[in-house]
Amino acid sequence: MAQPSLKLVDKKTNDAAVRSGEAVEQSLYEVRKKIYPRAVTGWFAAWRWVLVWATQLVFYGGPWLAWNDRQAVLFDIVHRKFYIFGLVFWPQDVIYLTILLIISALALFLFTAVAGRLWCGYACPQTVYTEIFLWVERLIEGDRGRRMKLDRGPLTARKFTRKAAKHGVWVAIALWTGFTFVGYFTPVRELWGEVMTLATGPWETFWSLFYGFATYGNAGWMREQVCIYMCPYARFQSAMFDQDTLIITYDRDRGEPRGSRARRADPRALGLGDCVDCGICVQVCPTGIDIRNGLQYECIGCAACIDGCNQVMEKMAYPRGLIRYSTQHALERKFTPKQMLAHIFRVRVLVYTAIVWGVIVAAAVGLYARTPLKVDVIRDRAAIAREVEGGDVENVYQLRIMNTSERERVFDVEVMGLPSIHVEGETHLLVGGAGSRLVPMRVRVHVQPGAVAPGAHRIDFLVHAHDDPAVFVRESSIFIVR
User: Fold this and answer.
1) In what side-by-side order are the strands of the sheet with 81-84?
2) The pTM is what?
3) pLDDT per residue as tens digits for the range 7-42
4) 455-465 and 386-387 strand pairing
5) Which domains does the chain have, with CATH numbers?
Protein backbone atom coordinates (compact mmCIF):
# COMPACT_ATOMS: atom_id res chain seq x y z
CA MET A 1 0.00 0.00 0.00
CA ALA A 2 1.42 3.37 -0.98
CA GLN A 3 2.23 5.73 1.84
CA PRO A 4 0.59 9.16 1.74
CA SER A 5 2.98 11.88 0.64
CA LEU A 6 4.18 14.49 3.10
CA LYS A 7 3.82 18.08 1.92
CA LEU A 8 4.32 21.55 3.35
CA VAL A 9 1.26 23.53 2.25
CA ASP A 10 -0.28 26.91 2.81
CA LYS A 11 -3.66 27.59 4.33
CA LYS A 12 -5.51 27.64 1.01
CA THR A 13 -4.52 24.10 0.04
CA ASN A 14 -4.68 22.60 3.52
CA ASP A 15 -8.34 21.52 3.37
CA ALA A 16 -7.97 19.98 -0.10
CA ALA A 17 -4.89 18.05 1.00
CA VAL A 18 -6.68 16.67 4.04
CA ARG A 19 -9.67 15.57 1.94
CA SER A 20 -7.38 13.73 -0.49
CA GLY A 21 -5.81 11.73 2.33
CA GLU A 22 -2.39 13.28 2.08
CA ALA A 23 -0.33 13.90 5.21
CA VAL A 24 0.11 17.62 5.76
CA GLU A 25 2.98 19.38 7.46
CA GLN A 26 1.86 22.90 8.28
CA SER A 27 4.06 25.69 9.63
CA LEU A 28 3.24 27.10 13.04
CA TYR A 29 3.96 30.60 11.74
CA GLU A 30 2.64 32.17 8.58
CA VAL A 31 5.37 33.30 6.20
CA ARG A 32 5.32 37.06 6.07
CA LYS A 33 4.36 38.66 2.80
CA LYS A 34 5.79 42.15 2.51
CA ILE A 35 3.14 44.85 2.50
CA TYR A 36 3.52 47.83 0.21
CA PRO A 37 1.10 50.48 1.53
CA ARG A 38 -0.09 52.87 -1.12
CA ALA A 39 0.14 56.61 -0.46
CA VAL A 40 -3.17 58.22 0.39
CA THR A 41 -4.39 61.75 0.99
CA GLY A 42 -7.43 62.95 2.83
CA TRP A 43 -8.76 64.30 6.08
CA PHE A 44 -7.54 61.45 8.27
CA ALA A 45 -4.14 61.27 6.54
CA ALA A 46 -3.71 64.99 7.26
CA TRP A 47 -4.54 64.47 10.92
CA ARG A 48 -2.09 61.60 11.09
CA TRP A 49 0.68 63.87 9.83
CA VAL A 50 -0.34 66.60 12.27
CA LEU A 51 0.22 64.08 15.06
CA VAL A 52 3.53 62.97 13.53
CA TRP A 53 4.79 66.55 13.52
CA ALA A 54 3.42 67.34 16.99
CA THR A 55 4.87 64.25 18.69
CA GLN A 56 8.26 64.55 17.01
CA LEU A 57 8.61 68.27 17.68
CA VAL A 58 8.03 67.48 21.37
CA PHE A 59 10.33 64.46 21.38
CA TYR A 60 13.24 65.86 19.39
CA GLY A 61 12.93 69.41 20.74
CA GLY A 62 12.32 68.60 24.41
CA PRO A 63 15.94 67.98 25.46
CA TRP A 64 17.14 71.24 23.89
CA LEU A 65 14.79 73.50 25.86
CA ALA A 66 16.47 75.46 28.66
CA TRP A 67 14.95 76.41 32.02
CA ASN A 68 16.72 78.18 34.90
CA ASP A 69 20.13 77.63 33.29
CA ARG A 70 19.55 73.89 32.96
CA GLN A 71 17.83 71.45 30.65
CA ALA A 72 14.06 71.90 30.93
CA VAL A 73 13.27 68.17 30.86
CA LEU A 74 15.96 65.93 32.35
CA PHE A 75 15.64 62.59 34.12
CA ASP A 76 18.90 62.65 36.06
CA ILE A 77 19.02 59.07 37.31
CA VAL A 78 22.61 59.36 38.56
CA HIS A 79 21.68 62.13 40.99
CA ARG A 80 18.14 60.79 41.47
CA LYS A 81 16.38 63.97 40.37
CA PHE A 82 13.80 64.50 37.64
CA TYR A 83 13.54 68.02 36.24
CA ILE A 84 10.36 68.94 34.36
CA PHE A 85 10.42 72.67 33.67
CA GLY A 86 9.94 74.38 37.07
CA LEU A 87 9.36 71.15 39.00
CA VAL A 88 12.02 68.98 40.62
CA PHE A 89 10.99 65.43 41.57
CA TRP A 90 12.88 63.18 43.96
CA PRO A 91 12.56 59.43 44.57
CA GLN A 92 10.10 60.23 47.36
CA ASP A 93 7.77 61.68 44.69
CA VAL A 94 7.15 58.30 43.07
CA ILE A 95 3.44 58.83 43.85
CA TYR A 96 3.29 61.32 40.96
CA LEU A 97 4.66 58.71 38.56
CA THR A 98 1.99 56.32 39.81
CA ILE A 99 -0.70 58.94 39.21
CA LEU A 100 0.64 59.58 35.70
CA LEU A 101 0.46 55.87 34.88
CA ILE A 102 -3.08 55.69 36.27
CA ILE A 103 -4.17 58.67 34.15
CA SER A 104 -2.57 57.12 31.05
CA ALA A 105 -4.29 53.78 31.59
CA LEU A 106 -7.69 55.36 32.26
CA ALA A 107 -7.32 57.65 29.24
CA LEU A 108 -6.53 54.61 27.09
CA PHE A 109 -9.69 52.89 28.37
CA LEU A 110 -11.72 56.04 27.70
CA PHE A 111 -10.46 56.65 24.15
CA THR A 112 -10.83 52.97 23.27
CA ALA A 113 -14.40 52.84 24.57
CA VAL A 114 -15.27 55.96 22.55
CA ALA A 115 -13.44 55.41 19.25
CA GLY A 116 -11.33 52.26 19.29
CA ARG A 117 -7.60 52.31 18.65
CA LEU A 118 -7.07 56.06 18.29
CA TRP A 119 -3.72 55.80 20.06
CA CYS A 120 -2.50 53.10 17.70
CA GLY A 121 -3.65 54.86 14.56
CA TYR A 122 -2.33 58.34 15.25
CA ALA A 123 0.13 58.70 18.14
CA CYS A 124 1.78 55.33 18.88
CA PRO A 125 5.56 55.55 18.26
CA GLN A 126 5.38 52.46 16.07
CA THR A 127 2.79 54.14 13.83
CA VAL A 128 4.60 57.48 13.84
CA TYR A 129 8.02 56.12 12.91
CA THR A 130 6.58 53.69 10.36
CA GLU A 131 4.87 56.68 8.72
CA ILE A 132 8.18 58.58 8.66
CA PHE A 133 10.12 55.62 7.27
CA LEU A 134 7.43 54.98 4.64
CA TRP A 135 7.63 58.62 3.57
CA VAL A 136 11.39 58.24 3.08
CA GLU A 137 10.83 55.00 1.17
CA ARG A 138 8.30 56.60 -1.18
CA LEU A 139 10.54 59.62 -1.68
CA ILE A 140 13.51 57.49 -2.78
CA GLU A 141 11.93 54.40 -4.37
CA GLY A 142 8.54 55.72 -5.51
CA ASP A 143 4.99 54.73 -4.65
CA ARG A 144 3.56 51.24 -4.31
CA GLY A 145 3.86 50.00 -7.89
CA ARG A 146 7.43 51.22 -8.36
CA ARG A 147 8.55 49.72 -5.05
CA MET A 148 7.05 46.34 -5.93
CA LYS A 149 8.67 46.41 -9.37
CA LEU A 150 12.03 47.43 -7.89
CA ASP A 151 11.96 44.59 -5.35
CA ARG A 152 11.03 41.99 -7.97
CA GLY A 153 13.75 43.09 -10.36
CA PRO A 154 17.39 41.95 -10.41
CA LEU A 155 20.09 43.70 -8.43
CA THR A 156 21.33 46.51 -10.62
CA ALA A 157 23.39 49.61 -9.87
CA ARG A 158 20.21 51.70 -9.82
CA LYS A 159 18.50 49.32 -7.39
CA PHE A 160 21.56 49.12 -5.13
CA THR A 161 21.91 52.92 -5.08
CA ARG A 162 18.27 53.50 -4.17
CA LYS A 163 18.28 50.81 -1.50
CA ALA A 164 21.53 52.12 -0.01
CA ALA A 165 20.20 55.68 0.02
CA LYS A 166 16.97 54.60 1.70
CA HIS A 167 18.70 52.59 4.40
CA GLY A 168 21.24 55.36 4.92
CA VAL A 169 18.47 57.85 5.67
CA TRP A 170 16.72 55.29 7.88
CA VAL A 171 19.89 54.69 9.89
CA ALA A 172 20.46 58.45 10.26
CA ILE A 173 16.92 58.97 11.59
CA ALA A 174 17.25 55.96 13.91
CA LEU A 175 20.60 57.11 15.34
CA TRP A 176 19.31 60.63 15.90
CA THR A 177 16.29 59.12 17.66
CA GLY A 178 18.56 57.04 19.91
CA PHE A 179 20.72 60.08 20.66
CA THR A 180 17.63 62.13 21.55
CA PHE A 181 16.31 59.39 23.81
CA VAL A 182 19.57 59.29 25.79
CA GLY A 183 19.52 63.11 25.85
CA TYR A 184 16.60 62.95 28.27
CA PHE A 185 18.80 61.11 30.81
CA THR A 186 22.19 62.73 30.15
CA PRO A 187 22.36 66.52 29.58
CA VAL A 188 21.98 66.69 25.82
CA ARG A 189 24.56 69.43 25.24
CA GLU A 190 27.19 67.48 27.17
CA LEU A 191 26.17 64.34 25.27
CA TRP A 192 26.54 66.15 21.94
CA GLY A 193 30.05 67.22 22.87
CA GLU A 194 30.91 63.65 23.82
CA VAL A 195 29.52 62.33 20.54
CA MET A 196 31.52 64.87 18.53
CA THR A 197 34.73 63.84 20.30
CA LEU A 198 33.86 60.11 20.36
CA ALA A 199 34.03 60.19 24.16
CA THR A 200 30.61 58.85 25.14
CA GLY A 201 30.49 56.52 28.10
CA PRO A 202 29.57 52.83 27.77
CA TRP A 203 25.96 53.28 28.88
CA GLU A 204 25.31 56.31 26.66
CA THR A 205 26.80 54.42 23.72
CA PHE A 206 24.82 51.25 24.41
CA TRP A 207 21.43 52.93 24.82
CA SER A 208 21.89 55.26 21.85
CA LEU A 209 22.71 52.32 19.60
CA PHE A 210 20.09 50.03 21.16
CA TYR A 211 17.25 52.54 20.85
CA GLY A 212 18.41 53.45 17.34
CA PHE A 213 18.53 49.79 16.33
CA ALA A 214 15.04 49.22 17.75
CA THR A 215 13.70 52.19 15.79
CA TYR A 216 15.37 51.03 12.57
CA GLY A 217 14.21 47.43 12.98
CA ASN A 218 10.65 48.14 14.09
CA ALA A 219 9.80 50.95 11.67
CA GLY A 220 11.92 49.85 8.72
CA TRP A 221 11.59 46.06 8.74
CA MET A 222 9.02 44.68 11.16
CA ARG A 223 6.33 47.35 10.81
CA GLU A 224 2.90 45.69 11.00
CA GLN A 225 4.42 42.61 12.67
CA VAL A 226 4.96 44.67 15.82
CA CYS A 227 1.30 45.69 15.87
CA ILE A 228 -0.06 42.23 15.07
CA TYR A 229 2.21 39.93 17.09
CA MET A 230 4.20 41.93 19.63
CA CYS A 231 1.78 44.58 20.93
CA PRO A 232 -0.53 43.21 23.64
CA TYR A 233 -3.07 45.95 23.01
CA ALA A 234 -4.18 44.22 19.80
CA ARG A 235 -5.18 41.20 21.88
CA PHE A 236 -7.09 42.77 24.75
CA GLN A 237 -8.72 45.68 22.90
CA SER A 238 -11.90 43.64 22.39
CA ALA A 239 -12.47 43.69 26.14
CA MET A 240 -12.89 47.49 25.90
CA PHE A 241 -15.10 47.49 22.78
CA ASP A 242 -18.88 47.18 22.74
CA GLN A 243 -21.63 47.66 20.16
CA ASP A 244 -21.56 51.45 20.61
CA THR A 245 -17.80 51.92 20.18
CA LEU A 246 -16.94 54.10 17.20
CA ILE A 247 -14.88 51.93 14.84
CA ILE A 248 -13.92 51.87 11.16
CA THR A 249 -16.70 50.02 9.39
CA TYR A 250 -17.70 48.99 5.90
CA ASP A 251 -21.39 49.59 5.09
CA ARG A 252 -22.22 46.17 3.71
CA ASP A 253 -25.86 46.99 2.98
CA ARG A 254 -24.80 49.85 0.75
CA GLY A 255 -21.70 48.28 -0.78
CA GLU A 256 -22.84 44.74 -1.63
CA PRO A 257 -22.90 43.09 -4.02
CA ARG A 258 -19.59 44.56 -5.10
CA GLY A 259 -18.23 44.58 -8.63
CA SER A 260 -16.53 46.66 -11.28
CA ARG A 261 -18.51 48.84 -13.63
CA ALA A 262 -18.14 51.82 -15.94
CA ARG A 263 -17.99 55.22 -14.26
CA ARG A 264 -21.29 56.41 -15.72
CA ALA A 265 -23.12 53.11 -15.25
CA ASP A 266 -26.10 52.85 -12.92
CA PRO A 267 -25.10 50.31 -10.24
CA ARG A 268 -28.73 49.61 -9.35
CA ALA A 269 -29.55 48.68 -12.92
CA LEU A 270 -26.62 46.27 -12.85
CA GLY A 271 -27.70 44.81 -9.52
CA LEU A 272 -24.56 46.09 -7.80
CA GLY A 273 -23.81 48.04 -4.65
CA ASP A 274 -21.54 51.06 -4.38
CA CYS A 275 -18.34 49.06 -3.85
CA VAL A 276 -16.46 48.86 -7.16
CA ASP A 277 -14.11 46.19 -5.77
CA CYS A 278 -11.05 48.28 -6.65
CA GLY A 279 -9.02 47.05 -3.67
CA ILE A 280 -7.81 50.54 -2.76
CA CYS A 281 -8.87 50.01 0.87
CA VAL A 282 -6.52 47.00 1.03
CA GLN A 283 -3.68 48.69 -0.84
CA VAL A 284 -3.50 51.67 1.54
CA CYS A 285 -3.79 49.57 4.71
CA PRO A 286 -0.48 49.45 6.65
CA THR A 287 -1.36 46.00 8.04
CA GLY A 288 -2.70 44.62 4.73
CA ILE A 289 -6.20 43.67 5.88
CA ASP A 290 -9.50 43.98 4.02
CA ILE A 291 -11.81 46.08 6.18
CA ARG A 292 -14.76 44.75 4.16
CA ASN A 293 -14.38 41.48 6.08
CA GLY A 294 -15.42 43.25 9.27
CA LEU A 295 -13.59 44.35 12.40
CA GLN A 296 -10.25 42.55 12.81
CA TYR A 297 -7.69 42.77 15.59
CA GLU A 298 -5.01 43.68 13.02
CA CYS A 299 -6.80 46.98 12.30
CA ILE A 300 -4.90 49.81 14.02
CA GLY A 301 -7.60 52.42 13.37
CA CYS A 302 -5.50 54.67 11.12
CA ALA A 303 -8.50 55.36 8.79
CA ALA A 304 -6.33 55.19 5.65
CA CYS A 305 -9.02 52.99 4.08
CA ILE A 306 -11.61 55.72 4.69
CA ASP A 307 -9.55 58.29 2.81
CA GLY A 308 -8.81 55.85 -0.01
CA CYS A 309 -12.44 54.78 -0.42
CA ASN A 310 -13.70 58.37 -0.30
CA GLN A 311 -11.40 59.27 -3.20
CA VAL A 312 -12.89 56.42 -5.25
CA MET A 313 -16.45 57.41 -4.32
CA GLU A 314 -15.78 60.97 -5.46
CA LYS A 315 -14.44 59.75 -8.81
CA MET A 316 -17.52 57.57 -9.28
CA ALA A 317 -19.83 60.44 -8.19
CA TYR A 318 -21.15 58.30 -5.31
CA PRO A 319 -21.75 59.58 -1.76
CA ARG A 320 -18.71 59.41 0.53
CA GLY A 321 -18.73 57.20 3.61
CA LEU A 322 -18.98 53.68 2.22
CA ILE A 323 -16.15 53.02 4.69
CA ARG A 324 -16.47 55.32 7.69
CA TYR A 325 -16.32 55.68 11.44
CA SER A 326 -19.53 54.20 12.82
CA THR A 327 -20.76 51.72 15.43
CA GLN A 328 -22.21 48.24 15.16
CA HIS A 329 -25.54 49.43 16.53
CA ALA A 330 -25.61 52.39 14.14
CA LEU A 331 -25.15 50.10 11.14
CA GLU A 332 -27.66 47.52 12.30
CA ARG A 333 -30.37 49.96 13.44
CA LYS A 334 -29.77 52.68 10.83
CA PHE A 335 -29.06 55.40 13.40
CA THR A 336 -28.81 59.01 12.35
CA PRO A 337 -25.53 60.77 13.27
CA LYS A 338 -27.28 62.41 16.22
CA GLN A 339 -28.59 59.08 17.51
CA MET A 340 -25.16 57.50 17.07
CA LEU A 341 -23.45 60.24 19.10
CA ALA A 342 -26.07 59.88 21.84
CA HIS A 343 -25.19 56.20 22.17
CA ILE A 344 -21.43 56.84 22.02
CA PHE A 345 -21.53 59.10 25.09
CA ARG A 346 -23.09 56.43 27.27
CA VAL A 347 -22.79 55.75 31.00
CA ARG A 348 -19.56 53.81 30.64
CA VAL A 349 -17.88 56.65 28.79
CA LEU A 350 -19.18 59.29 31.21
CA VAL A 351 -17.88 57.30 34.19
CA TYR A 352 -14.44 56.94 32.58
CA THR A 353 -14.41 60.67 31.81
CA ALA A 354 -15.37 61.62 35.36
CA ILE A 355 -12.69 59.37 36.85
CA VAL A 356 -9.96 60.62 34.49
CA TRP A 357 -10.74 64.28 35.18
CA GLY A 358 -11.07 63.59 38.91
CA VAL A 359 -7.58 62.08 39.01
CA ILE A 360 -6.16 64.90 36.85
CA VAL A 361 -7.66 67.60 39.08
CA ALA A 362 -6.49 65.84 42.24
CA ALA A 363 -2.96 65.54 40.82
CA ALA A 364 -2.93 69.20 39.77
CA VAL A 365 -4.08 70.32 43.21
CA GLY A 366 -1.46 68.10 44.83
CA LEU A 367 1.30 69.57 42.65
CA TYR A 368 0.13 73.12 43.33
CA ALA A 369 0.04 72.56 47.10
CA ARG A 370 3.27 70.57 47.12
CA THR A 371 5.73 71.75 49.76
CA PRO A 372 9.20 72.41 48.25
CA LEU A 373 10.87 70.67 51.18
CA LYS A 374 11.39 67.06 52.21
CA VAL A 375 12.91 65.75 55.43
CA ASP A 376 14.01 62.26 56.44
CA VAL A 377 14.87 61.52 60.09
CA ILE A 378 17.06 58.51 60.94
CA ARG A 379 17.98 57.58 64.49
CA ASP A 380 21.60 56.65 65.15
CA ARG A 381 21.24 53.02 66.20
CA ALA A 382 24.87 52.74 67.26
CA ALA A 383 24.14 54.77 70.40
CA ILE A 384 20.57 54.27 71.62
CA ALA A 385 20.79 56.88 74.38
CA ARG A 386 23.53 58.32 76.55
CA GLU A 387 23.79 60.52 79.60
CA VAL A 388 25.83 63.70 79.15
CA GLU A 389 26.97 66.54 81.41
CA GLY A 390 24.33 68.14 83.59
CA GLY A 391 22.24 64.98 83.78
CA ASP A 392 20.81 65.38 80.26
CA VAL A 393 19.91 62.39 78.11
CA GLU A 394 21.08 62.67 74.50
CA ASN A 395 19.91 60.87 71.37
CA VAL A 396 21.65 61.30 68.01
CA TYR A 397 19.83 61.55 64.67
CA GLN A 398 20.66 62.04 61.02
CA LEU A 399 18.49 64.64 59.26
CA ARG A 400 18.43 64.67 55.47
CA ILE A 401 16.96 67.97 54.32
CA MET A 402 16.00 68.15 50.63
CA ASN A 403 15.35 71.55 49.11
CA THR A 404 13.12 70.86 46.07
CA SER A 405 13.02 74.50 45.00
CA GLU A 406 15.74 75.80 42.68
CA ARG A 407 17.08 78.56 44.94
CA GLU A 408 19.16 78.10 48.05
CA ARG A 409 17.41 78.47 51.37
CA VAL A 410 18.14 78.54 55.07
CA PHE A 411 16.05 76.12 57.10
CA ASP A 412 15.42 76.30 60.84
CA VAL A 413 15.17 73.10 62.86
CA GLU A 414 13.11 72.72 66.03
CA VAL A 415 12.20 69.70 68.12
CA MET A 416 9.22 69.23 70.44
CA GLY A 417 7.36 66.53 72.29
CA LEU A 418 9.08 66.34 75.72
CA PRO A 419 9.71 68.88 78.49
CA SER A 420 13.01 70.78 78.12
CA ILE A 421 13.81 69.02 74.80
CA HIS A 422 16.15 70.99 72.56
CA VAL A 423 18.68 70.68 69.75
CA GLU A 424 22.31 70.90 70.77
CA GLY A 425 24.28 72.62 68.04
CA GLU A 426 23.45 74.41 64.79
CA THR A 427 19.77 74.85 63.98
CA HIS A 428 20.05 77.19 60.95
CA LEU A 429 21.05 75.12 57.91
CA LEU A 430 21.84 76.36 54.40
CA VAL A 431 20.76 74.02 51.58
CA GLY A 432 21.45 74.78 47.90
CA GLY A 433 18.81 74.90 45.20
CA ALA A 434 17.53 71.44 44.23
CA GLY A 435 20.06 70.06 46.68
CA SER A 436 20.12 68.05 49.87
CA ARG A 437 22.14 68.08 53.06
CA LEU A 438 22.73 65.32 55.60
CA VAL A 439 23.14 66.78 59.09
CA PRO A 440 23.93 64.95 62.37
CA MET A 441 21.55 66.26 65.02
CA ARG A 442 22.06 65.88 68.79
CA VAL A 443 18.84 66.17 70.76
CA ARG A 444 18.88 66.49 74.54
CA VAL A 445 16.33 66.30 77.33
CA HIS A 446 16.95 67.39 80.92
CA VAL A 447 15.42 64.54 82.89
CA GLN A 448 14.06 65.59 86.28
CA PRO A 449 12.95 62.93 88.77
CA GLY A 450 9.41 61.82 87.90
CA ALA A 451 9.10 64.17 84.90
CA VAL A 452 9.92 61.71 82.08
CA ALA A 453 9.48 57.96 82.44
CA PRO A 454 12.13 55.62 81.04
CA GLY A 455 11.35 54.12 77.63
CA ALA A 456 10.55 55.31 74.11
CA HIS A 457 8.79 58.64 73.62
CA ARG A 458 7.49 60.19 70.42
CA ILE A 459 9.04 63.51 69.40
CA ASP A 460 8.57 65.75 66.34
CA PHE A 461 11.15 67.57 64.25
CA LEU A 462 9.84 70.77 62.71
CA VAL A 463 11.88 72.08 59.77
CA HIS A 464 10.77 75.33 58.11
CA ALA A 465 12.23 77.86 55.70
CA HIS A 466 13.74 80.85 57.46
CA ASP A 467 12.30 83.28 54.89
CA ASP A 468 8.87 81.62 54.68
CA PRO A 469 7.50 79.84 57.77
CA ALA A 470 4.64 78.49 55.59
CA VAL A 471 7.18 76.15 53.99
CA PHE A 472 7.59 73.52 56.68
CA VAL A 473 7.65 69.78 57.27
CA ARG A 474 6.93 67.88 60.49
CA GLU A 475 8.59 64.48 60.89
CA SER A 476 8.17 62.13 63.84
CA SER A 477 10.76 59.95 65.53
CA ILE A 478 11.48 58.20 68.85
CA PHE A 479 13.47 59.51 71.80
CA ILE A 480 14.85 56.90 74.24
CA VAL A 481 15.11 57.67 77.96
CA ARG A 482 17.02 55.24 80.17
Assistant:
1) 73-76, 81-84, 87-89
2) 0.83
3) 444 545 555 555 565 655 555 556 678 899 999 999
4) unpaired
5) 1-31 (no CATH), 34-370 (no CATH), 373-481 (2.60.40.10)
